[in-house]
Amino acid sequence: MIVLFWDIDGTLLTTGKAGVPAWEAAVREVTGREFQLSSIRVPGLTDFQIAVKTFELLGYDADEATLRRMVRRYEELLPEFLPLKHGRVLPNVREILESLRGRAEVRSFLLTGNTRGGARAKLSHYGLFHYFPDGAFAEDTRARATIAERALDLARRAGPIADERVFVIGDTPHDIECANAIGAKTIAVATGGYTRSELQPHGAWRTVDELPPVDEFLALIEATPDPAAARSRPADGADDEAPVRDRAVRGGGR
């Protein structure tokens, strides 16, 4: 079984920064103060971590209840602002997700720093929500790795998986850290807030400028043999096709 954990912003789509005015409006309502979200490097941070940094920069003493009220208000405002910006689904994303539908050997889940409500708003607006049965989302201020742990637990409850066939697909060093925390391979894409040169030092399994076309993507995730299939493969000629497959993956995936 192949398991794919997908980030949202900068990986699946861009909202055209629709979250910025939604966030700033929520800050005004909760604190009565003006705030520029551009003062924080947001990519890779969870919504709760952004809230903490927001209050720190404002010098605003926020308790847990205020923190949650801030994030909840952002969730509520986001659907109003999404249509006001020109976002888009990123290259090859829709084609890849469509190709994975109905493939019993592949499961896709969300692994995102968005809250569940924020993720639903963005994916629904861009017509991607139906591709994901579930996922793990930001629920508190803890490290993003805790979201990865919940995502892996979710995938294991859905059925048996092979650890070497688990992938995190994301656009920031935080996604790579998530993958490392659960022993997954990262496919890092430079379609978000970090360039390819910024991503490469963090040790992703593969780093690409953007998600490749469907055939190349499938070759990439299928390059790691299924242990169950390997155990049942006849010994004679078992490795005949492996060199060809490996050359194809190296050529297309990098």
SSE series? EEHHHEHEHEHEHEHEHHH
Distance between the termini: 24 Å
The chain-level structural class is: alpha/beta
How many domains make up the coordinates? 2
The CATH architecture designation of the largest domain is 3-Layer(aba) Sandwich
Helical fraction equals: 40-55%
Enumerate the spans where pLDDT stays under 50 for 5 or more consecutive residues.
230-254
CATH class of the largest domain: Alpha Beta
Number of helices: 11
Q: Report the principal-axis shape.
A: globular
CATH superfamily of the largest domain: HAD superfamily/HAD-like
What portion of residues belong to β-strands? 5-15%
Rg (C-alpha, Å): 19 Å
Mean pLDDT: 90
Order of strands across the main sheet: 5-4-1-6-7-8
Largest sheet: 6 strands, parallel
Oligomer: single chain
